[in-house]
Amino acid sequence: MAGFELIKTDDGSWTLQSSVHGELYHSRHGAIQESRHVFIKYGLLEWLKSNSSPVSILEIGFGTGLNAFLTFLESRELDIEVYYTALEALPVPQKVYKGLDYPALLNAQEYEKAFLKMHDSPWNSRQTIDPFFFLEKKEISFEQIEDSSRFDIIYMDAFAPAAQPQFWENPFITQLFTALKPGGILTTYCAKGSFKRALKAAGFKVVAVPGPPGKREMTTAYKP
Ligand SMILES: C[S@@+](CC[C@H](N)C(=O)[O-])C[C@H]1O[C@@H](n2cnc3c(N)ncnc32)[C@H](O)[C@@H]1O
Predict the structure, then answer these.
(1) Which domain holds residue 69?
(2) What CATH number corresponds to the domain at position 131?
(3) Whole-structure pTM value
């Protein structure tokens, strides 16, 4: 069975390291800081500049549920309806996600039940977390996605290319392109040249943007 170690990052928030992959789930410079910057600022908020609710999001790697929870908090704040689909092959066990403490760290204790519900709720069917947030967690491997023009935003949060090269190149990138609606955005912490070339080859328009603290650059990509 996989073991999970809790590790404190520089902004005081926890991340995980699993014995299966040996990789950190977030940047050492700050888990919450990184997720907010890469996925909320350059994903959700960027998309909302020219679109309105409802929004459908695909997350590549549910993991700690941090991206889902930050998105949930935004949906409350901005009054938007979110349909969130997350893929995950190695669900984090209850005793581990209970120790992550994200609701308290985000000063959102009143939504602790929602955070736990995201993790506790059944896999492979759409669950109502609250009237504005619908979550479908799929316990499948990334390459098994078969969706076509279904998502407005993709949070690409697989482990880094050094650990999982197949998810940063084609044909997988083309699967993501297919899953996205025209006008949709893919956002990720990765800025590797070969990844950006794979995005272009799949048909994306690629934009390099400033990375979170500790990282000069990251990538957003648009489906024309
Ligand atoms: C970098 S972590 C990010 C997790 C999550 N976004 C978070 O904020 O905690 C990558 C996640 O992808 C999952 N994963 C890795 N390879 C996978 C695969 N082939 N299929 C599905 N999930 C996978 C890992 O178990 C891990 O939860």
Answers:
(1) 30-222
(2) 3.40.50.150
(3) 0.98
DSSP state of 19: T
Q: Would you say residue 68 lies in a domain?
A: yes
Q: Please check whether residue 89 lies inside any domain of the structure.
A: yes
CA–centroid distance, 141 to ligand 1, in Å, is 9
43-62: pLDDT as tens digits:
999 999 999 999 999 999 99
| DSSP string for residues in 123-187 | SSSEEEEETTEEEEEE-S-GGG----S-EEEEEE-PPPTTT-GGGGSTTHHHHHHHHEEEEEEEE
Average pLDDT, the chain: 97
Rounded Cα–Cα distance for residues 163 and 105 (Å) = 29
Task: Report the domain count for the chain.
Answer: 1
The answer to whether the CB of 159 is under 6 A from ligand 1 is yes
